Amino acid sequence: MANIEAVAKQAGVSVASVSRVINGAAARADTEARVRKAIAELDYQPNSAARALKVRQSEQICLSFDDLANPAYIAMTRGVGRELSATKYRLILSSAFSSVEEIVKHLQTMGRGFADGLIISPIYSDERITKLISALHMPVVLVGTQPEGLDVDNVYVDSSAGIAMAVEHLIQTGRTKIGLINGPLSTKPGVRRKAAFEKAIKAAGLKFDKASVIQANTFSPEAGYFAFSEIADFSKFDAFICANDQLAAGAMKFASENGISIPGDIAIVGIDNTDMASLLHPTLTSVDLKAEERGEIAAQLMLDRLANPDRAPKRITVEPKLVIRESTAKK
Amino acid sequence: MANIEAVAKQAGVSVASVSRVINGAAARADTEARVRKAIAELDYQPNSAARALKVRQSEQICLSFDDLANPAYIAMTRGVGRELSATKYRLILSSAFSSVEEIVKHLQTMGRGFADGLIISPIYSDERITKLISALHMPVVLVGTQPEGLDVDNVYVDSSAGIAMAVEHLIQTGRTKIGLINGPLSTKPGVRRKAAFEKAIKAAGLKFDKASVIQANTFSPEAGYFAFSEIADFSKFDAFICANDQLAAGAMKFASENGISIPGDIAIVGIDNTDMASLLHPTLTSVDLKAEERGEIAAQLMLDRLANPDRAPKRITVEPKLVIRESTAKK
DNA sequence: TTGTACGCGTTATCAG
DNA sequence: CTGATAACGCGTACAA
Q1: Strands lying side by side in the sheet with B213-215
Q2: Contacts of B49 in chain A (CB under 8 A)
Q3: Which CATH number fits the domain B159-288+322-328, given the four candidates 3.30.230.10, 3.40.50.20, 3.40.50.2300, 3.40.50.1100?
Q4: pTM as predicted
Q5: Nearest CA-CA distance, residue B125 and chain A, Å
Q6: Which pLDDT score, from 0 to 100, does residue B31 have?
Q7: CB of B283 within 8 A of CB of B326?
């Protein structure tokens, strides 16, 4: 591959001049023309490692989350990717973390400087993670609930409010025996959704029964299916909120196979409003947590901070929205 | 951030020794111990740009495809990501290409050397793309149909065979009036599926009617819905093959809303066997093109070539598999 | 086994 | 406006 020196020689100028025209500094018209010609002739591309070494910028942004199988994170990735595609920054994806240890290891490698910033949406709550993030010598934007003692750019969605909306909606459609198919309590969304559910139930004047929250092992459709299959007596319920659309889809599948009518016997509301919500049968009422929009905002925050490193951390809040479909139609 | 010199000073050795222990070269035990201690104390991480510049390797692999909204590519990404996560390589994602021009621009930037290899699954067929790929000074593995004049590592799935299996299956279940909801003919999958469909219909002894292939504008559920809505007379058909599961899901939605029974009136088979196939109602028979597996294989091919740059290009073929579900149950 | 010194390709400073 | 040259941080001959 041709380097800057070869271009300089070809154009009959110095490497400094080549560098200048590449980076848009002033140059005489004919100098620039000769350099551009040489660049074209040699098919020259500036070496990104050399550039990164010199300017201390990789032009890469790292997006990290835990589950590449979860459509909500895919949507977030889409948002980040779209926002970044118009810039000089490349997207590097770090995912499929199955344990806190893996995240810790990943976070440690960030010190190598291969990325200029980190957009992270951690599902696990762990002090080590918090500590490593705050020790990172680079901009971080955190998508999700900000842990204690961390003060970085943050995009936040009040999923609790979303769950409250879901509860209210269910009550309005005549349901009072509401259950929660929750995700694992080892995750932040798991604990938050449980707490939000209890609070929303009480706020609505219903009495909260511990037995109404059913824990799934994962956020997958299979887990939702299994959770429903473990319910001994469906007559105790007339509605379920599921911790995400995948769980909801699995639950609906079990219902369909076992003669449980939705929304006739049981109403279902999902969370995330992923693409599948409108494709299921019946279509799924779901709390839109706007993952794609959050991804876009996260990327914007990152770009903004990269351009303006000293501003105070910002928090941007996204409003959840209940998208009502057939699965909660009035009885 | 500490650099290698700081570590050397702290450990009372030379930079060369530090470099050696980092890269696993021989060193006396106590030297190594002191270096490791210094590394830990200073929280040292080797700078990846400097390393990349020196060894001419970025330790990054770029994955490029056209549509981040398509679950099949997501699955592929999952496969690549999983395979790479055990290695030193990072995954960089280039996606959301809406035009050939964008791909061309992207391919040109590959010359900057920010990636050691490119895994690409191009949906568009364009000579410029082919030319740029073959001019790339780096390993390429192509996922999909290899264009004329390109000889790189390739992972291939015979989607035509998959379509033939679908046709046969439909016939076995008593259908003879089979249509195709196809994706855009501006894409490679679009043209291939159309040709495969025609061939399979004829091979099965049915007569091929041009009107039986209906073109959708995109590979999205909305396009599938719209395609079905444009069908004037459903009595001409007793089955449809859809160019992917998303189109199938959209079509099924239209059917459900318009009193068309599946599989009673119309059988449906999708392609890709994405997660949603088993969650739809009825569950969707689908041709599994094994996107995730292809992603894994692509990554393996890449790693293998990186370790062994001079071997001849390999082609690995994956067998499609028809996964039979309710949407094609016997009449 | 260890240390010195050079070069990887760029950008930026500074003198002309 | 241009050219020579010193870094950037690392790996590795080569010499000791």
Answers
A1: B213-215, B178-182, B239-242, B267-271, B285-288, B321-323
A2: 49-50, 52-53, 58, 113-114
A3: 3.40.50.2300
A4: 0.95
A5: 22
A6: 94
A7: yes
